[in-house]
């Protein structure tokens, strides 16, 4: 890693790591009576390990000027591997908590094995660990290709990638030892939140600096989506996590918001995390890798622009549909519902745009499992956004809310859309990124595809059934006007579906493990032999160092 | 002007409405402006151009 750094960047890296060691020690000492201290030691230990690693490589020769005529892909390569590792961890945690719902005794009376602590490891592991690393890795790849410019420096992309993963590790380990601010998808406490802001601002700065150096005048639409993802996630993260720590030596903080304002802020955050983390960013992925793989330009570039402004304007207002029938003012609920319904237009414009791009190339979809991942992602994106608009309608929500239908909906999106477009995109760049002719095994990609598809379908159907039955049982009255079923009755009715759901999840995580294995084996394949490459290039300007 | 419920509702129903309608009109007009078509068609080809995978100098 340090071999790619200039001398100034190496000094910068040491200063950052040294600073982090100091911060970690301060946390460890200030929080010695608190669980904050555990995270202090974690931060100090990891930073110290990297600090010594950096010192060992400090005197390596500086990188040659020739590197400037190549894209800088090392962070993308590392990001791909981290994505797949977090994917297996997060999805395996998901399988485990699914099993806990079917067989609650599996906690073995150990506090940190309880559902409440493992479930955020699953959600953060797949959303931030798997999804976030995939977005960072692919965005840096797409950004360079579509601007025809190299990243501005080597230090900042590594800072973003490793700093982001430090956040993920602090978050996941915190859940196990009981650190949480109890906001769904925003569980990490104040110190982790502040760190993520630093990382995120650097990430946005990389984007702006590379765009400022671009050689291609038009900014390709995929970059718009990636930038919306980075910018809006920063806004959401900062506002929703405004909190006052009990003291600088305590992990515990209290939110600036209370009551229904807290709920509204949380679901404005929560729904837009879905919109901008799990949708806009991955649409950026789709708008680049799907046309690239199909070797056809996007069906309608204009429609992609309309979709972009449509989702950026409208998603912002949709969050209140999470709070139907609550103390939130009725008109705010209705506002959220109306915008959720209208959102179907830009959502289906994107899904349709992807499928119309493939129209006429279906033989490629049939023959190429990688493209099939992307095509299926577009189909699931269409299904999920339709379902989401439908479920946001107040009357439908009265049946679906608090039931497993919501879980089914989320997983149709997360497994069918987010994970499928990610796997498709990663498979399409892995050979090129690791300088191999092809993937280790095309058969394993097929195996993965069918595991992923069958896992998703089994999961989603189990939760649809379970959710609708649950909703109906909760609202069935007998002749005397009392509820026919107790909550426990509904819980027992769920049991078979919970087993089926865990099985669907198991298939999906097996697929993810297949992808990780296939990637490792691809990296270990002998290097590509290209005798003639290098002659088919424009002559380099004859510029020597010191000239 | 007090910052109460009615004020917020009034603001949303007036400014909010105008904001969204005007932005939508600007966005649609820009996207479908005939002279912008050529640039968009060029941009759409960007991912599929077969070129060396390296930055332009």
TrEMBL record, chain A:
Residue positions binding heme b 2; high-spin: 409
Cited CDD domains: cbb3_Oxidase_I
Membrane-traversing stretches: 12-30, 36-58, 79-103, 123-143, 155-178, 190-212, 224-248, 268-290, 299-318, 338-358, 370-393, 405-429, 449-477, 497-517
UniProt-annotated binding residues for heme b 1; low-spin: 122, 411
EC number, UniProt record: 7.1.1.9
Annotated cofactor note: Binds 1 copper ion per subunit, denoted as copper B. Binds 2 heme groups per subunit, denoted as high- and low-spin.
UniProt pathway: Energy metabolism; oxidative phosphorylation
Gene Ontology biological process terms, A to Z: aerobic respiration; electron transport coupled proton transport; respiratory electron transport chain
Residues that hold Cu cation according to the record: 271, 321-322
Name the UniProt record assigns to this protein: cytochrome-c oxidase
Species of origin: Devosia sediminis
Gene: ccoN
From TrEMBL, chain B:
Superkingdom field: Bacteria
Keyword entries, A-Z: Membrane, Transmembrane, Transmembrane helix
UniProt-listed Pfam families: FixQ
Record flagged with keyword Transmembrane helix: yes
Transmembrane segments: 15-33
Protein name (Swiss-Prot/TrEMBL): Cbb3-type cytochrome c oxidase subunit 3
Organism (species): Devosia sediminis
Lineage of the organism: Bacteria, Pseudomonadati, Pseudomonadota, Alphaproteobacteria, Hyphomicrobiales
């Amino acid at each position: 890693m340090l071999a790619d750094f200039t001398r100034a960047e190496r000094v910068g890296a040491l200063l950052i790591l040294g600073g982090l060691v100091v911060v970690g020690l301060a946390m460890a000492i200030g929080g010695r009576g608190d669980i904050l201290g555990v995270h202090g030691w974690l931060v100090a230990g990891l930073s110290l390990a990297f600090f010594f690693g950096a010192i060992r490589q400090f005197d390596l020769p500086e990188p040659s000027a020739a590197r400037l005529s190549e894209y800088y892909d090392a962070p993308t390569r590392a990001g791909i591997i981290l994505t797949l590792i977090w994917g297996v961890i997060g999805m395996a945690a998901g399988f485990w908590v699914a099993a806990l719902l079917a067989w609650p005794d599996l906690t073995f009376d150990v506090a940190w094995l309880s559902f409440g602590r493992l479930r955020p490891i699953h959600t953060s592991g797949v959303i931030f660990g798997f999804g976030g690393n995939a977005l960072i890795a692919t965005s840096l790849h797409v950004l360079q290709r579509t601007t025809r410019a190299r990243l501005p420096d080597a230090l900042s992309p590594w800072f973003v990638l490793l700093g982001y993963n430090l956040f993920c590790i602090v978050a996941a380990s915190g859940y196990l030892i009981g650190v949480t601010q109890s906001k769904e998808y925003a569980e990490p406490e104040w110190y982790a939140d502040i760190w993520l802001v630093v990382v995120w601002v650097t990430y946005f700065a990389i984007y702006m600096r590379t765009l400022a150096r671009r050689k291609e005048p038009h900014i390709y639409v995929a970059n718009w989506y990636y930038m919306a993802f980075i910018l809006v996630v920063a806004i959401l993260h900062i506002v929703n996590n405004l909190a006052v720590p009990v003291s600088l030596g305590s992990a515990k903080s209290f939110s600036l918001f209370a009551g229904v304002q807290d709920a509204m802020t949380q679901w404005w955050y929560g729904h837009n995390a879905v919109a901008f983390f799990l949708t806009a960013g991955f649409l950026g992925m789709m708008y680049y890798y799907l046309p690239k793989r199909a070797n056809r330009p996007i069906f309608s570039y204009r429609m992609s622009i309309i979709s972009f402004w449509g989702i950026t304007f409208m998603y912002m207002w949709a969050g209140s549909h999470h709070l139907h029938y609550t103390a939130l003012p009725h008109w705010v609920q209705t506002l959220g519902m109306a915008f959720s319904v209208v959102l179907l237009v830009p959502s289906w414009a994107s899904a349709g745009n992807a499928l119309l791009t493939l129209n006429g190339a279906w033989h490629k979809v049939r023959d190429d499992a990688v493209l099939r991942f992307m095509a299926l992602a577009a189909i699931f994106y269409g299904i999920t956004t339709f379902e989401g608009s439908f479920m946001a309608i107040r009357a439908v929500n009265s049946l679906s809310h608090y039931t497993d239908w919501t879980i089914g909906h989320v997983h149709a999106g997360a497994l069918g859309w987010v994970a499928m477009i990610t796997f498709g995109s990663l498979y399409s760049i892995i050979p090129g990124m690791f300088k191999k002719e092809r993937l280790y095994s095309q058969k394993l990609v097929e195996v993965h595809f069918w595991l992923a598809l069958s896992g998703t379908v089994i999961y989603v159907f189990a939760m649809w059934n379970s959710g609708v039955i649950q909703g109906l049982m909760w609202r069935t009255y007998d002749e005397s006007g009392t509820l026919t079923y107790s909550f426990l009755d509904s819980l027992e009715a769920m049991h078979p579906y919970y087993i089926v759901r865990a099985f669907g999840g198991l298939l999906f995580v097996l697929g993810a493990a297949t992808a990780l294995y296939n990637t490792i084996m691809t990296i270990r394949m002998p290097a590509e032999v290209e005798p003639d490459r290098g002659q088919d290039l424009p002559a380099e300007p004859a510029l020597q160092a010191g000239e | 002007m007090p910052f109460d419920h009615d004020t917020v509702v009034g603001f949303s129903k007036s400014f909010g409405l105008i904001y969204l309608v005007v932005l939508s009109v600007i966005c649609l007009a820009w996207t479908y402006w005939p002279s912008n078509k050529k640039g968009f068609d060029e941009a759409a080809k960007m991912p599929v151009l077969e070129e060396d995978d390296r930055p332009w100098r």
